[in-house]
């Protein structure tokens, strides 16, 4: 009876010893930077596999550590009382890396996944850094964003205040290599000399990229 009790205790335990405690979380990064994902498994794990868009990119074996097949996919490992954490590091991220990142335990086929979003900040410019305008004259100022992914959100500021969106129009277009362009045209009648700033923003940027133009107001002459 004692042997039967011991056998019964350990057999069902095999199904629970190798569970994923905490899976990876979604990450958004700029192209060229690192992306990091953590996966924590409970004590008793044997093999952990990382997949990118369904393709295995790195394997971690409890008895020997990480098996790396590419310099772009490496890992760091951490062991604690709660279990084992594998951190997948994707180096020099590219647009094609965007998608599903998954960690899987081989012995139970349990998996947990998150999504990687790789974004690109392109160029932003206003053709002239200064613009001279006579009073009571309406002008159009063009701000151009080239080579972004996704298409950036464009806003305008005058000195330290945001300009109402009704005063400018922004058009987006498809560029090369799956990138996006945007053209924003601000229409205004300056009342004084002022500094205008065009801002382009995407989620991965810590702060918007900007381009400025100084509008110099001069008196009209007869």
TrEMBL record:
GO-annotated biological processes: cell-cell adhesion
Checking SUPFAM superfamilies in the record gives: Immunoglobulin
Q: Is Transferase there in the keyword field?
A: no
GO CC annotations, alphabetized: bicellular tight junction; cell surface; membrane
Q: Which residues form a coiled coil?
A: none
| Gene3D superfamilies, alphabetized | Immunoglobulins
Protein name (Swiss-Prot/TrEMBL): IGSF5 protein
